[in-house]
């Protein structure tokens, strides 16, 4: 996980500003699924807090949160966000070596950072850290495809291939519900999807895409100016000037309970 964390160095401030949070409802509805008496939630690969914020908001005041993040830049912004909340502890660590005692957590959550993990290493650590009856959950935000998003990603993929900036994540895909069900020490997995929406103007869409690691890899190869210019031109074809376009999102939650 550490090697992937370095790809996001320098992106933390933008990530915190322009990445969408996860719906608090998704975390709130995980709580009754845990039958453990451990009131500790762990956010693995917490980034700058886009998942920690709604999770903290969804948890009862009696719960504590440990936000684990290996990236120095991300961890700096994360710690700043929760410096006045004693119930949130920000700590350096990776998904494959969680800095927590055995059986200490009632809820272990990994959001979109999962594709950066070594899956088997993470599941072994989740098995060790999650208390019997506790819940392991994977969450992912996915933008519902639109002509705008499809044109942007087609352009980015084409430009990245030409610049030699494609990032192969085929070995780090998110597990299916069936695969999650087969993880040793856990019960049959389930899933649920939440749909929600937001609006963004042209610049808001550009700023969001500039937080994606695939786009930032391209920026590092060809420079920020050309990438921004291309994204702005695409947005201008789909969003009227001085207006905002609706963006539809799906948040998928996959969860399983510790035996």
From TrEMBL:
One GO MF term attached to the UniProt entry: S-adenosylmethionine-dependent methyltransferase activity
Pfam families: Methyltransf_11
Keyword Methyltransferase appears in the UniProt entry: yes
InterPro entries: Diverse_substrate_MTase, Methyltransf_11, SAM-dependent_MTases_sf
Superkingdom assignment: Bacteria
Methyltransferase listed as a keyword: yes
Entry keyword set: Methyltransferase, Transferase
Methyltransferase type domain residues: 42-137
SUPFAM superfamilies referenced in this protein's UniProt entry, alphabetically: S-adenosyl-L-methionine-dependent methyltransferases
One of the GO biological process terms: methylation
Family, similarity comment: Belongs to the methyltransferase superfamily.
Name assigned to this protein: Methyltransferase domain-containing protein
Organism: Pseudooceanicola antarcticus
């Amino acid at each position: 996980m550490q090697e992937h964390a370095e790809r996001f160095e320098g992106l933390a401030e933008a990530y915190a500003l322009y990445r969408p949070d996860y719906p608090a409802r998704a975390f709130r509805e995980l709580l009754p699924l845990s039958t453990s008496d451990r009131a500790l939630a762990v956010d693995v690969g917490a980034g700058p807090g886009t998942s920690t914020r709604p999770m903290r908001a969804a948890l009862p005041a009696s719960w504590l949160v440990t936000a684990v993040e290996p990236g120095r830049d991300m961890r700096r912004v994360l710690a700043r966000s929760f410096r006045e909340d004693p119930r949130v502890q920000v700590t350096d660590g990776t998904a494959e070596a969680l800095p927590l005692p055995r059986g200490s957590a009632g809820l272990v959550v990994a959001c979109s950072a999962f594709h950066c993990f070594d899956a088997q290493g993470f599941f072994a650590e989740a098995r060790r850290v999650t208390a019997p009856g506790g819940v392991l959950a994977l969450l992912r935000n996915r933008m519902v495809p639109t002509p705008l998003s499809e044109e942007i990603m087609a352009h980015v993929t084409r430009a990245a291939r030409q610049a030699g900036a494609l990032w192969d994540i085929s070995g780090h895909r998110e597990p299916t519900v069936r695969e999650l069900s087969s993880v040793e020490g856990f019960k049959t997995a389930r899933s649920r999807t939440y749909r929600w929406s937001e609006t963004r103007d042209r610049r808001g869409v550009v700023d969001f895409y500039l937080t994606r690691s695939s786009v930032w890899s391209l920026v590092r190869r060809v420079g920020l100016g050309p990438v921004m210019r291309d994204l702005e031109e695409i947005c201008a074809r789909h969003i009227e000037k001085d207006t905002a376009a609706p963006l539809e999102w799906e948040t998928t939650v996959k969860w399983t309970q510790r035996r």
